[in-house]
Description:
Blueprint: H1 2-14, E1 17-18, H2 24-29, H3 41-44, H4 46-59, E2 63-65, H5 73-77, H6 85-99, E3 108-113, H7 128-145, E4 149-155, H8 158-169, E5 175-179, E6 181-183, E7 186-187, H9 193-200, E8 207-214, H10 218-231, E9 238-243, E10 248-251, E11 254-257, H11 261-273, E12 276-281, H12 287-297
Parallel strand pairs: 1-12, 2-3, 3-4, 4-5, 5-8, 8-9, 9-12
Antiparallel strand pairs: 6-7, 10-11
Helix pairs in contact: 4-6, 4-12, 6-7, 7-8, 10-11, 11-12
Amino acid sequence: xxxxxxxxxxxxxxxxxxxxxxxxxxxxxxxxxxxxxxxxxxxxxxxxxxxxxxxxxxxxxxxxxxxxxxxxxxxxxxxxxxxxxxxxxxxxxxxxxxxxxxxxxxxxxxxxxxxxxxxxxxxxxxxxxxxxxxxxxxxxxxxxxxxxxxxxxxxxxxxxxxxxxxxxxxxxxxxxxxxxxxxxxxxxxxxxxxxxxxxxxxxxxxxxxxxxxxxxxxxxxxxxxxxxxxxxxxxxxxxxxxxxxxxxxxxxxxxxxxxxxxxxxxxxxxxxxxxxxxxxxxxxxxxxxxxxxxxxxxxxxxxxxxx
Length: 307
């Protein structure tokens, strides 16, 4: 695929691509209320969503994730907006694209796809077929809005990741995917990094990258990268790291993250040393953290990779 080749070429030129940081965390700072779906801001406050993208772009991000993480019918149904999947995802992609319009650098737009919030059979009530259809609907709307590729993220179940991949693959867009490992190196459903590597082998060449995002901090994500590196066999696959900015803490009835820009800058170097070539931040990561990561990686030469 032409897009995959372009991304690979960019990585060869720069040594890595820097993704963005948190969406929810930064929109909270712009006035988003706790419990309110950030995806609705694509329709209500598009300028604020656009500003968040632009701040990350100015901080050094090469990849912007759309404000569509929870924009599937199941998550939106909690607020009575399940019939607005197409509209919300299309606008999410449009806003991200518009944010790059006057930029001098090339930036890639990734369509963010998160979990349904439901448990898939046999442990839960949601059928894999219904989940796949929901992910397909979201993926098609993101494609219509103009995303470059799809980013399935923060999954913890193999059944749900497979349903998302099946739906996303039908768009013919390139895909990357990531699990969230937050329980002694495993996902909430007990999966290790090796499971994701095995699963994505069934979706090549549509899937061109995999890794870890979110979790319980940068140090734990580095541990997941070590596991990915030791099990990774397909050297053409791009390894992804998008860690939370430290640990969440309650301060004056507000959730904050204890990760400093300096800490995230060090994490970025550790990640690239372990072979990650798409690196960013997740919950708690602001444009200030991304700027520190960008400056830390600029002109940094990782040690030679060993197999």
